């Protein structure tokens, strides 16, 4: 029966591509890829010769109709992105909606995913968590978004590009306070690293923060409440007054 497969691909280490994923990519009629040149490298490494079509983020709705057509012709399609799961901060949602609404099976094929690796190794509470993906690129957007998240009890997970991470962390410090966090970089790769500390400690690191990275930040539930902080501040003021006397 023609089906839509959502196939997770490696996020660095090619040994994390499962035999099932390879088999599915060999067996489907079409692979719809975010970037055909990137996917071509993966396919040639695993000797997969399936027909490849482009499925970019910018014309996803149109492209989804094209993929539905393949299923109507009796063909199975696999959607892949450059790394990790399709749909997770990547293309694939319109196709999944359109094709499932048309009554075809949608079958996820497990694999690597950056946010889960970062979360489990972060040392922060893993449940409940909130995966946000990328914050807005302007400071104004980030302020609005983080302001809304400030009261959330869940551990927060963000994706970020290395050249923007300092600005992003500055916004987090301002809107969320100096919470515990973990910066997980180069997951599954040779230089994988987890940098744990408070937001200000990470911002104080002198060297450039390089590579692909996930930012995990403690939720409001793991922090002292505003009331606690206020109480503490009042005790400090009281102490100051007493000392002065
Ligand atoms: N679909 C992917 C997934 O399932 O994780 C995410 C794709 S998103 C366009 C790319 C972002 O994911 C990067 O900017 C980075 O935040 C994160 N990422 C992807 N691979 C990573 C890795 N190996 N180590 C750390 N972060 C990674």
UniProtKB/TrEMBL annotation:
EC number in record: 2.1.1.198
CDD domains membership: RsmI
Record protein name field: Ribosomal RNA small subunit methyltransferase I
Annotated function: Catalyzes the 2'-O-methylation of the ribose of cytidine 1402 (C1402) in 16S rRNA.
PANTHER family reported in the protein's UniProt record: RIBOSOMAL RNA SMALL SUBUNIT METHYLTRANSFERASE I
Main location: cytoplasm
Alphabetic keyword roster: Cytoplasm, Methyltransferase, rRNA processing, S-adenosyl-L-methionine, Transferase
InterPro entries given in the database record: 4pyrrol_Mease, 4pyrrol_Methylase_sf, 4pyrrole_Mease_sub1, 4pyrrole_Mease_sub2, rRNA_ssu_MeTfrase_I, SAM_MeTrfase_RsmI_CS
The protein's enzyme class: transferase
Family the UniProt entry places it in: Belongs to the methyltransferase superfamily. RsmI family.
Cellular compartments annotated: Cytoplasm
Positions of the Tetrapyrrole methylase domain: 4-202
Gene Ontology terms, MF aspect: rRNA (cytosine-2'-O-)-methyltransferase activity
A GO CC term assigned to this protein in UniProt: cytoplasm
UniProt source species: Copranaerobaculum intestinale
Reaction equation(s) it catalyzes: cytidine(1402) in 16S rRNA + S-adenosyl-L-methionine = 2'-O-methylcytidine(1402) in 16S rRNA + S-adenosyl-L-homocysteine + H(+)
Pfam family for this entry, one: TP_methylase
């Amino acid at each position: 029966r023609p089906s839509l497969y959502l196939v997770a691909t490696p996020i660095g280490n090619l040994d994390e591509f499962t035999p099932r994923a390879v088999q599915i990519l060999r067996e489907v009629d079409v692979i719809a890829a975010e970037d055909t040149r990137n996917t071509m490298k993966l396919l040639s490494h695993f000797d997969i010769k399936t027909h490849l079509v482009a499925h970019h983020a910018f014309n996803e709705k149109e492209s989804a109709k094209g993929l539905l057509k393949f299923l109507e012709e009796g063909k199975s399609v696999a959607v892949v992105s450059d790394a990790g799961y399709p749909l997770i901060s990547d293309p694939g949602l319109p196709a999944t909606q359109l094709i499932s609404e048309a009554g075809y099976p949608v079958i996820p094929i497990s694999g690597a995913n950056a946010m889960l690796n970062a979360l489990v190794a972060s040392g922060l509470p893993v449940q409940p968590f909130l995966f946000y993906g990328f914050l807005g690129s302007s400071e104004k957007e980030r302020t609005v978004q983080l302001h809304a998240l400030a009261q959330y009890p869940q551990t927060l997970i963000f994706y970020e590009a290395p050249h923007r991470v300092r600005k992003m962390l500055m916004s987090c410090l301002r809107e969320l306070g100096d919470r515990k966090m973990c910066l997980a970089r180069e997951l599954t790769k040779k230089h994988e690293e987890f940098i744990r500390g408070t937001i200000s400690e990470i911002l104080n690191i002198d060297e450039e923060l390089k590579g692909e990275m996930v930012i995990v930040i403690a939720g409001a539930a793991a922090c002292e409440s505003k009331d606690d902080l206020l109480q503490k501040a009042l005790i400090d003021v009281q102490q100051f007054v007493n000392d002065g006397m």
